[in-house]
Amino acid sequence: MKKEQFKEIISFAIERENEAENFYIEAAEKAKWPHIRELLLEMSKEEQGHARYLSGIKMDELDDENIEPIPNLKLSDYLVEMEYKPDMDFQSIMIIAMKREKRAVKLYEELASTCTDPSVCKLFALMAEEEKKHKLKLEKEYEETVLQDN
What we know:
This protein has 4 helices and no strands. By secondary structure, it is mainly alpha-helical. Helices cover 71% and strands 0% of the residues. It has one domain: Ferritin, CATH 1.20.1260.10. Helix 1 (3-30) runs antiparallel to helix 2 (34-56) and helix 1 (3-30) packs antiparallel against helix 3 (90-114).
C-alpha cells in the first residue's frame, strides 16, 4: 500500500474517533448526574487517545501489535435505537453510547475484512478491539446500574 493511501485511511479513522470524542463531551456537558458526567468524560478521553494513537502510527509498526479478543455481552443487540436529546436520562444515554460503540466495532470489522494490505487489516482489527473495550465497559455499567435497579 502506498503511504498516501495509508494516510487517507488513518485520517478517516481519526475523524471517526474525533466524532465519538465530541459526542461524549457534548453528552457529558448536558449530563445531570456527576456519575454519568464522569463516565462520559472518561469515554471521551479514551476516544481522544485512539485519535492520538492513530496519528502517530506508522505502517511498519503494526506488525508488532497484539490483538486480544474482547468479550461481547451483546446487551446493545437487544436495545432499541434512539436519537440523542440533551435532557435524556441515564439509561437512554447509555443505550445511545452502546449503540455508537457497536457501530464503530462493525465499521472497523468491515474495513478489516475488506482490505488487502495486511498492515492495514491489522490496524482495523486493532481498532475494532479497542471499540469493543468501550462497548464492554458501557454494557457492564449498564448492567450494574440500570438492570440491577429493575
